[in-house]
Amino acid sequence: MSELTSESIPTTSISHANLTHFTTAFPTLQSTLTTSPTLLSQSFSSIFSSTTASWEYAHDLSREARGLEKGGGGGESALGYGEILPETVFEVMEVIRKEHGVVYDLGSGSGRVLFASCLSHPFTSAYGLEYLPTLHENALHNLSLWRKKELETFCSSTPPLISFNFTNADISKIPNFKLTPNPTLLICHATLFDNDLFACVQLISENCEIGTTFIMVTKELRTGGVTGIETLGRKQWEMSWGWATIYIQRRV
Ligand SMILES: C[S@@+](CC[C@H](N)C(=O)[O-])C[C@H]1O[C@@H](n2cnc3c(N)ncnc32)[C@H](O)[C@@H]1O
């Protein structure tokens, strides 16, 4: 398997229609889509600067919800918490930058991965499913920060450019393991998912439409003719808790 580069990923065209209203408060979402990692990081930090919007806060919320003391490690169960760093999301989006449409995060926690995805890429809608109610509430809090920045940036009559949909739900209970609408991009930070939960992710992925791209952390979806999934590449990237392999895969 070769190292990932943007050239190794098949491309589709991008619609810039939704980006033309963005101004300097969202510097990365300008119509040119010319992005620099520094600008993206500055933009993300300016929206999510409060303690309650940090990954550490989400980590503690997760531990509290599971009856654990704040501050410890995250790896006790499938509900253990860790995040893909925003900078990592930006780099991965650079690799798959010709994708657009609908992005999902299965086990979305604080929602920060979806915000980082939408900051660096022209998705029209984002869906996050999270099991723990307090983390789901934190994602809604973070959404309010995003909307506040949008209102500060644009005139109030401008409708939100990206539709965010956070649901307090169990991945294993998704009806028929079918996501509606179909994702263009499905992200799953599955490092701590056990075999049963990951089997659900596998079924959900196999039920996606041809062309769907998957970003899988640590665990690779089964590939081959029966599954209709192939691996485009893999690379080590940084998480809040250390380095992990991210697999970029596609429904074919
Ligand atoms: C490692 S964290 C990933 C957080 C975020 N997606 C990221 O990558 O930065 C995994 C998340 O999956 C959630 N989770 C675990 N089992 C789940 C399930 N059955 N349904 C929905 N969410 C689940 C956990 O509560 C946790 O927030």
> Helix segment count?
6
Mean pLDDT: 85
Quaternary assembly: single chain
What order do the strands of the largest sheet run in, or round the barrel if closed? 3-2-1-4-5-7-6
Describe the global form: globular
Question: How many extended strands?
Answer: 7
Total of domains? 1
Query: If you consult CATH, what is the topology?
Result: Rossmann fold
- Write down the CATH class: Alpha Beta
* Rg for CA atoms: 17 Å
Largest sheet: 7 strands, mixed
What distance separates the N and C termini?
A: 17 Å
CATH superfamily: Vaccinia Virus protein VP39
Give the helix level as a range of percent.
Answer: 25-40%
Pfam families: DOT1
Protein name: DOT1 domain-containing protein
Domain DOT1: 77-224
GO molecular function, one term: histone H3K79 methyltransferase activity
Task: Outline the structure in words.
- The chain is built from six helices and seven strands, in the order H-H-H-E-H-E-H-E-E-H-E-E-E.
- It is of the alpha/beta class and 252 residues long.
- It has one domain: Vaccinia Virus protein VP39 (Rossmann fold, 3-Layer(aba) Sandwich), CATH 3.40.50.
- The chain has a seven-stranded mixed β-sheet with strand order 3-2-1-4-5-7-6.
- The protein is globular and about 50 Å long.
- Residues 1-33 have low confidence and may be disordered.
- It binds S-adenosylmethionine.
- Residues 62, 78-79, 81-84, 105, 107-109, 113, 129-132, 135, 170-172, 189, 191, 197 line the site of S-adenosylmethionine (SAM).
Summarize the model shown.
GO terms for molecular function: histone H3K79 methyltransferase activity. By secondary structure, the protein is an alpha/beta fold.
